[in-house]
Amino acid sequence: MPDSPPRKVLLIGWDAADWNVALPLIEQGKMPALKRFMDSGVWGDLATIRPVLSPMLWTSIATGKRAWKHGIHGFSEPCPATGGIRPITNLSRQTKAVWNIFNQHGWRTNVVGWWPSHPAEPVNGVMISNHFQQAVKNLEDDWPMRPGTVHPTRLEEPLKEMRVHPAELENEHILPFIPRAAEIDQEKDKRMESCAKIIAEISGIHAATTAAMQLEPWEFTAVYYDGIDHFGHAFMKYHPPRQPWVDEKDFELYKDVTEAGYRYHDMMLDTLLQLAGDETTVMLISDHGFEPGNLRPQYIPNEPAGPAAEHSPFGIFCLKGPGIKQGERIHGGTLLDITPTLLHLYGLPVGRDMDGKVLVNCFEEEQVPEFIDSWDDVAGDHPDGRHPSGAQIDAQEARESIQQLVDLGYIDAPNPDRAQAIEETTRELDYNLAQANMDGGRYAEAATILERLWERWPEESRFGVRLLSCAIALREAEWARATFELIIARKQEHAPKAAEQIKTIMDEAKAKAEEEGKEFKPEDLPRTTQQKLRRLRGHAGTNLRALAFLQANVLRLEENPTEALEILDKAAGAEQALQPSLLIKKGELLRTLRRWDEAEVIYRQLIEIDPRNPEGHHGLAICELARKKPYEAAAHAREALELNFHHPQARYVYAKALLRIGQPKFAEQVLLAAVAEMPRFALAHAMLAMIYRRRIRNPEAADKHGRLAREAAAANREQRRKVHSTTDKPLEELAAFPAMSAVRGRSAAADNPLIVVSGLPRSGTSLMMQMLAAGGIDLVTDGNRKADDSNPKGYHEDDRVKKLLQTKDRAWLAAERSKAIKIVAPILRAIPPEVPLKVIFMERDSAEVIASQRKMLERDRKGGARTDDHALGRTFAAQLRAAQNWADSRENLELLPISYSQAVQTPSRAAAEVADFLGHELDLAAMAAVADPTLHRFNRD
Q1: Alpha carbons 265 and 670: distance in angstroms, whole number
Q2: How does pLDDT run across 749-804, given as a tens digit for each residue?
Q3: Cys-Cys with 928: which of 105, 121, 287, 908 at CB 3.0–4.6 Å?
Q4: How many Cβ atoms sit within 10 Å of the Cβ of residue 438?
Q5: Residue 43's beta-bridge partner residues?
Q6: Are the C-beta atoms of residues 763 and 843 closer than 8 Å to each other?
Q7: Are 660 and 691 in contact (CB under 8 A)?
Q8: What span, in angstroms and rounded, lies between the C-alpha atoms of 468 and 462?
Q9: What secondary structure does DSSP assign to 697-742, as a single string?
């Protein structure tokens, strides 16, 4: 390893900078410094990772690792010193940042404003934390430097004077951003104040950076500017062209802010480049983009960190310096590649535990990176500059800083109850970690977190939606269907409660305003109340389009693409029809149906409205391959990879196209890259085995990849099993199901009702249908499902029932009145409200129901047999509660609960209860004779 660094590097971070904004300004000559930078080096997109939350992303940039390795999982965290919460700190980081690696070589580093970098680390150089620029409310207030903001402390006093307070700004500072500022009533409209705050903060960071570069020796400097992101959240909605939902007057007042923000950053870039000099290597990056066009969301999701929905998946990347290509656009970079590339620039090996790669395509000469297992295991000749274990920060400054995150909308205001605040904060950290695991393909780990969160907060459907995504990714159809049904059931259960809470809060607020003689305005409610209302509206509302999208995903997994496509077409209104996510899903379904021409139209629409979305070219590559056009397929697959280098599925399609063109060696290299990114990619290993066996003639490699393909397939099965493995609790300790309550005395149900036999699957519904038939009741059954070992006396079902939730054709049920039909509990809500009902609801012990289902699924070799028993028990309990709520809400319904054990052990008594409930003279002896006590086992219905 080198004793002295081979070069100096300046790393500049512009949070949320996006080429879709910058390039038009460059073409207009409005960002000359960035144009010169691009001409003298390389530039391109930098793909982000998910979740798109800045503290997590900038830590991944600084470490080359994903969130489960580096430990930063959100915007705030529990504070051990106070028992409350605080803004996220670097104390939670569990691995070395790149500057720590440089530090242990004795190299001097400046780090300014990085997020998170508080408290400042004791590096060999200067560290100014991300709390440095945050101003007090009033200019005349005391503005001390918070403890831990600057290292070394000798620089605190001189740096204190470089901070800029918003009130210090003059008209000439504001007018380039808001030319019509004089027209704004600042008492009522606080947006100009927000703009001034952003300008002041980034100006303070810039002043501190230029001072450190000029007055302190350094070999590496990293500076982070958050201004473009903050300008985006506050003002991108007004950026031209005006969107239909934006007020025209507001548009005219604030349409220039975003452009001015970019131009101001260009001016600061020009200064940094001059200070660095031509011999310094300079890298400019952003962690993600910010959607400036027609894909801008009108509404922000009702959840913490909701503003992240405005981010786009590609940031910017520029690099110039000795040995770097000039004037070229590069492809395939991700933010995980920054630290590996920085290490390589300094002649240091890359850690194998890092998730990124060296961007070798930036260099003029061919590069061969070196590797070590992990920098965390290397002590170095000098201290690495990290905090000692157990370091803490001042409680007061934590409280002050948390308010900034609340004001920006990144977190909800902390709950005054400390225990609840910690629980809610930990919930969001876990949720973010689950999303990071999903983005990294660790669906089993993500599902474990999400199941726990959803059990604790069943009203939070976002947890269920992510869990459903895990089930779909693991191709578990039974699990996906159960999760989707539970999402519906829990929505039905919690929506009325949330609506009632909203009404209570609003009524109390109106009454208080009236009592005080004030006009009631929702915007005047306390911030905590507004946040609570926003969350409650999310719980109370039902997004039918979102539900349709989820249902389509499940149907596709169930190999029913035609119905999935119909549901998407019906649910998508005109304004939603061209949403990228909808187009991607429609393209997948059309491919499944082999409707290649229609799929091509969809993917070309996707590329037109979202040119940087790799799925458009990936889909076209698959279509062209199916139509025997390998050259066109290869071109589109390459386009997809240029947009997203880490896309192993696109590599697989690219390799298939190359093979058909007659390029087996090239296909080999593409597939090797695919399995390097995704070691469990069984199909890629299998294709490599075929290439080595038939085309390149390398038997040893063929055997190796054949074995790896089998191991990958087994590992994938094990991952699915891991998600569904039973917990440590024995089956008999499953929580008891809630008992159904009888619903009687409703005269409307006596008018020639439809007799419905219901309950959970495997709860005795088939037995009751057999008893009714023996007693003389006609059944609604098509006989399609034959008797088998799981149900030797038959199921007595009608296939039309299975489609009730997916179709509006339900009128046939009214024609079957006076007959008995089996409709299991999750489907009951699909029965038309005008049909009078007598419901016989079968109840059975929770352990028996789940064990019976498991044995049946194992016998039939269905995937649901691997579902966790306790998670399944919670699902079924929620379905039972939803069924009770449904029954209680109908005036033309009566319900009789019947115990399965009673029906088997004392069938005469059960038969008499049923006959009395129905008001029919039935053959009670024949009904009782149907029951067979020997069938009261786990594997019988």
Answers
A1: 39
A2: 677 899 999 998 888 999 999 999 999 999 999 888 777 766 777 788 898 988 88
A3: 908
A4: 21
A5: 318, 329
A6: yes
A7: no
A8: 10
A9: --HHHHHHHHHHHHHHHHHHHHHHHHHH---SS-GGGSPPPPPPPP
